[in-house]
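Curious: explain these C-alpha coordinates?
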Amino acid sequence: MVTIQVRIDNNTKTAVDTLFTSLGLDTSTAVRMFFTASLECDGLPFAVRRHELAPSEKTGSRSAMFGCLRGKYKMSDDFDAPLDDFKEYMR
Protein backbone atom coordinates (compact mmCIF):
# COMPACT_ATOMS: atom_id res chain seq x y z
CA MET A 1 0.00 0.00 0.00
CA VAL A 2 1.32 3.48 -0.85
CA THR A 3 0.32 7.00 0.16
CA ILE A 4 -0.27 9.71 -2.44
CA GLN A 5 -0.17 13.35 -1.40
CA VAL A 6 -1.84 16.10 -3.42
CA ARG A 7 -1.69 19.82 -2.71
CA ILE A 8 -4.95 21.71 -3.21
CA ASP A 9 -6.30 24.91 -1.73
CA ASN A 10 -8.44 24.82 1.42
CA ASN A 11 -11.66 25.89 -0.35
CA THR A 12 -11.38 23.06 -2.88
CA LYS A 13 -10.64 20.51 -0.14
CA THR A 14 -13.63 21.65 1.91
CA ALA A 15 -15.90 21.60 -1.16
CA VAL A 16 -14.89 18.10 -2.29
CA ASP A 17 -15.09 16.73 1.26
CA THR A 18 -18.63 18.12 1.52
CA LEU A 19 -19.58 16.73 -1.90
CA PHE A 20 -18.19 13.27 -1.25
CA THR A 21 -19.72 13.11 2.23
CA SER A 22 -23.11 13.90 0.69
CA LEU A 23 -22.53 10.89 -1.57
CA GLY A 24 -21.65 8.66 1.37
CA LEU A 25 -17.92 8.62 0.54
CA ASP A 26 -14.74 9.96 2.03
CA THR A 27 -12.25 11.73 -0.22
CA SER A 28 -9.76 8.83 -0.21
CA THR A 29 -12.45 6.43 -1.44
CA ALA A 30 -13.50 8.88 -4.17
CA VAL A 31 -9.88 9.16 -5.36
CA ARG A 32 -9.52 5.36 -5.39
CA MET A 33 -12.75 5.17 -7.43
CA PHE A 34 -11.29 7.67 -9.90
CA PHE A 35 -8.11 5.60 -10.26
CA THR A 36 -10.10 2.39 -10.74
CA ALA A 37 -12.35 4.00 -13.37
CA SER A 38 -9.27 5.39 -15.16
CA LEU A 39 -7.78 1.91 -15.36
CA GLU A 40 -11.09 0.47 -16.57
CA CYS A 41 -11.26 3.13 -19.31
CA ASP A 42 -7.54 3.03 -20.08
CA GLY A 43 -7.69 6.83 -19.78
CA LEU A 44 -9.65 9.51 -18.00
CA PRO A 45 -13.23 8.45 -17.15
CA PHE A 46 -14.63 11.78 -18.39
CA ALA A 47 -14.31 14.02 -21.42
CA VAL A 48 -11.41 16.47 -21.47
CA ARG A 49 -12.00 19.50 -23.67
CA ARG A 50 -10.16 22.71 -24.45
CA HIS A 51 -13.13 24.63 -25.88
CA GLU A 52 -15.30 27.16 -24.02
CA LEU A 53 -18.18 25.65 -22.04
CA ALA A 54 -21.70 26.20 -23.31
CA PRO A 55 -23.79 28.63 -21.22
CA SER A 56 -25.88 25.78 -19.79
CA GLU A 57 -22.69 24.07 -18.57
CA LYS A 58 -21.50 27.23 -16.80
CA THR A 59 -24.71 27.52 -14.77
CA GLY A 60 -24.45 24.04 -13.32
CA SER A 61 -27.49 22.73 -15.19
CA ARG A 62 -25.40 20.36 -17.26
CA SER A 63 -25.85 16.64 -17.11
CA ALA A 64 -22.96 14.53 -15.87
CA MET A 65 -20.23 13.62 -18.34
CA PHE A 66 -18.94 10.09 -17.77
CA GLY A 67 -16.52 9.69 -20.67
CA CYS A 68 -15.94 6.02 -21.44
CA LEU A 69 -18.27 4.97 -18.60
CA ARG A 70 -21.30 6.72 -20.11
CA GLY A 71 -24.19 4.28 -20.32
CA LYS A 72 -22.46 1.56 -18.29
CA TYR A 73 -23.85 2.63 -14.94
CA LYS A 74 -27.27 3.83 -13.83
CA MET A 75 -27.99 5.29 -10.42
CA SER A 76 -30.89 3.51 -8.77
CA ASP A 77 -33.75 5.68 -7.48
CA ASP A 78 -33.36 4.08 -4.04
CA PHE A 79 -29.54 4.19 -4.06
CA ASP A 80 -29.30 5.40 -0.45
CA ALA A 81 -31.89 2.97 0.93
CA PRO A 82 -29.40 0.19 1.78
CA LEU A 83 -27.30 2.74 3.70
CA ASP A 84 -30.17 3.43 6.10
CA ASP A 85 -29.27 0.25 7.97
CA PHE A 86 -25.76 1.60 8.62
CA LYS A 87 -26.47 5.24 9.53
CA GLU A 88 -25.64 4.65 13.19
CA TYR A 89 -22.14 3.53 12.16
CA MET A 90 -21.52 6.43 9.73
CA ARG A 91 -21.13 9.37 12.11
The chain has a mean pLDDT of 79. Helices lie at 10-22, 27-41, 55-58. The radius of gyration is 16 Å. The first helix runs from residue 10 to 22.
